[in-house]
Amino acid sequence: MKKKWQLVFVLFLLLITTGCLYPNDRLAKNQVSNDLQLQTVQQAVESYREAKTGLLPIKNRNSDTPIFIKYPVDFNALKQNGFLASTPGNAFEEGGFYQYVIINVETNPTVKVIDLRMTEKLRQLNVQLEMYRNKHLYPPFGEMISNGVYNLNHEKIGLDEPPYVVSPYSQDNLPIVIDTNGELFIDYSKDLYRALKDFPNDYEQGDDIRYILAEQYPFVPAYSLPYTIKDGEPVFFKE
Prior knowledge:
239 residues; five-stranded antiparallel sheet; ABC transporter periplasmic binding protein yphF
């Protein structure tokens, strides 16, 4: 029996020292997007743009696609033209958690990422929401937060607790809200409030303050409504 446990212990040590507790490809694909990966893709995008006289390696999306998810990076275009050796292991295309996108395409094309775990949570909620809408005339509105923005009445769609996603900025739980059209969004108010306090800015009422998150962090505030600033705090800016 003693020899058996000694063998188990030795095998455990081997697993740790060789990094095989998890497959290497899983570790690579699921790690948080880091500066080196973003810089590598950023440089490839800039080289492509220079070589292609201003064109960007992006996939086509509908014109009404929300701005922060509108321009996914086309890794095939970068690789086929010799600007990138391989797709980052943590990218969606490689089975990872992150969708690489480009923001500020007209002025200063910058590579950022979307945490697709938030995307999946919204997808699951939308399935439940669709089932509810098939039986009811109005969306499951809860308390009104702002003009045209409501808390989601989670009980009406069969949930015991209000749904949330984990913030890629703070790891806080961010609520899900619903607009008058029955569309779901992530409420980034907590992250925006913190960013406005932590980073110098000159935002005024009427400005879209979501860009403070996109500029200061690797992540974009995907699936968000516009926000502006009022009395130093973030508020929904829904027309």
